Amino acid sequence: MYQPSETRYDTMKYRRCGRSGVLLPLLSLGLWHNFGDITPFQTQQALLRTAFDHGITHFDLANNYGPPDGAAETNFGRHMDTDWRPHRDELFLSTKAGYGMWKGPYGDWGSRKYLIASLDQSLKRMHVDYVDVFYHHRPDPNTPIEETMGALDQIVRSGKALYVGISNYGPEQARAAIRELRRLGTPCLIHQPRYSMLDRWIEDGLTDVLREEQVGCIVFQPLAGGLLTGKYLDGIPEDSRMKRDSRFLKPGAQTDEMAEKIRGLKEIAEARGQKLQHLALQWVLRDEGITSALIGASRPEQILDNLEVLNAPELTGEELEKIDRILGKK
């Protein structure tokens, strides 16, 4: 029987999520990669245990995480039965729906029919009665925002989720969703966008909206799919995710221009006595408006390595200016 570390809360730092009562760890574990059927169960188990033993209480899933679709939730259900049921109240679990999951007109996008049916399926796969937060995974241009947000409101009132959030919404889409949820009486807890040094789209209005509306923000791909580890600068390692599974990071992503930026960032990290990935994580968390950063890992050692960012000195104004110049922002 798994016994969590007695010191699991001693070193992790937590931030308040928007104006809510929820505190999230600065680093959360995403189950997007390495929890499908291509990853051994024992490896998955070691990742979850290592994360929790060091204060990472938030595990993030979605209905289509795998491969195949649904496999990450199904595998997590096995972990729930094996390890986590005695510790459920210490966990903050999330899942999502918004991308294609089953054939026909009711298995995609943002209708009430799809969202409620998908969450029912997710709960069965995960072997839980409720999730802590349920997201609409992407905006639906053809379904009224009132219907999509009404479904999220109904889900909370049904007890199947404690909170709701949105993901991949642009600034005005997010504002409309947040205000509709507030009107319904079910506040939007959190937004989950993609964000990294190499992908700063949320700075063009979205972070302002979230700050004004007092909504939390948890970012995915803070290491730009692995580019901000520097491990692809000298070619693609045989044991890397890009070599094994190029669904999310294509070999062509590492251009000469990109490599030059990454080398410049790596020099800043080394001058600080850091690894590049630590600088990248610290950079996305430099703003208190970013509640948490989602990390992925294929080995427990990678989680332990990322946790070193918690003890790094703050970035100086001069260092932030250098980073902006390298990235072409100044």
Q: Could you tell me the number of beta strands?
A: 10
The percent range for helix content is 25-40%
Shape: globular
CATH superfamily: NADP-dependent oxidoreductase domain
Radius of gyration in whole Å, from Cα?
A: 19 Å
Uncertain parts: none
Strand order of the largest sheet: 3-4-5-6-7-8-9-10
CATH class: Alpha Beta
Give the distance, in angstroms, between the N- and C-terminal Cα atoms: 54 Å
Give the number of helices.
11
Instruction: Write down the secondary-structure element order.
Output: EEEHEHEHEHEHEHEHHHEHH
Explain how this protein is built:
This protein has a single domain, classed as NADP-dependent oxidoreductase domain (TIM Barrel, Alpha-Beta Barrel), CATH 3.20.20.100. Helices cover 37% and strands 14% of the residues. The chain contains eleven helices and ten strands. A hairpin with a 6-residue loop joins strand 1 and strand 2. Helix 2 packs across helix 3, helix 3 packs parallel to helix 4 and helix 8 runs antiparallel to helix 11. It is globular.
Key descriptive features of the protein:
330 residues; TIM Barrel; two-stranded antiparallel ribbon; single chain; alpha/beta
SSE map:
Elements: E1 14-16, E2 23-25, E3 27-30, H1 41-53, E4 58-60, H2 71-84, E5 92-97, H3 112-126, E6 131-136, H4 145-157, E7 161-167, H5 171-184, E8 188-192, H6 206-213, E9 216-219, H7 241-244, H8 256-271, H9 276-284, E10 292-295, H10 300-306, H11 317-326
Parallel strand pairs: 3-4, 3-10, 4-5, 5-6, 6-7, 7-8, 8-9, 9-10
Antiparallel strand pairs: 1-2
